[in-house]
Amino acid sequence: MTTQGPTRHQVLIPLTPAAAEIVVANAASTVQSCNKGLVSACSKLRVESVHKTWDSVSMSTNSVAFAAELEVIKQWLKKTANLGDVTEVEPHLSQSKSFLKILGIPYWDSKISLPVTLAQVAEALSSSPLFESVILASMPHIMKASPSSDMFVIWIDI
Q: Is the pTM value of this prediction over 0.70?
């Protein structure tokens, strides 16, 4: 399961509020300048619009940008907005977060009549052949399916 997040057809550029205002105020020239740089770099990527998003500037693009294209956008954005070397500009792609959801696990340990613990879940996962080569990003999260249920759900951050 992947949580809904921003599209990957978007380049996020964290900037100071003042620098972000300059870029957004000159959105048309920013789009034109970045596209000029992308064309000269023989890229098919095009910037379609520029918006202020969270604590950054968001550039909507026609496809997912590669590292070389992010570098071109960085260079041309610095030229257009006169950001110079003082303002750090590091464009990056948005990221989503994925989870593995395991359903239908008995809530009670049949041997000792107590709820299953996180340690028991982690041990069961590590001993399973399905998880042989899996490294967990964090400990699994256990959640009861409903207050009256005798089953629980395991969420694993991958």
A: no
Q: Given this model, what pLDDT does residue 89 score?
A: 87
Q: How far apart are CA 108 and CA 116, in angstroms?
A: 6
Tokens 């750090």 belong to 88
Going from the C-alpha of 123 to that of each of 11, 51, 57, 83, 126, the distances in angstroms are 40, 47, 44, 52, 5
**Chain centroid to CA 22:** 26
Both tokens of residue 39?
């064309």
Number of H helices, E strands in the chain: 4, 9
Residue 95 has pLDDT above 80, yes or no: no
Going from N- to C-terminal start, the domains of the chain cover: 10-93, 99-157
Amino acid at 100: L
pLDDT digits (tens, 9 = 90+) for 97-122: 677 888 888 888 777 778 888 888 88
Q: Which residue has 């260079």 as its token pair? A: 75
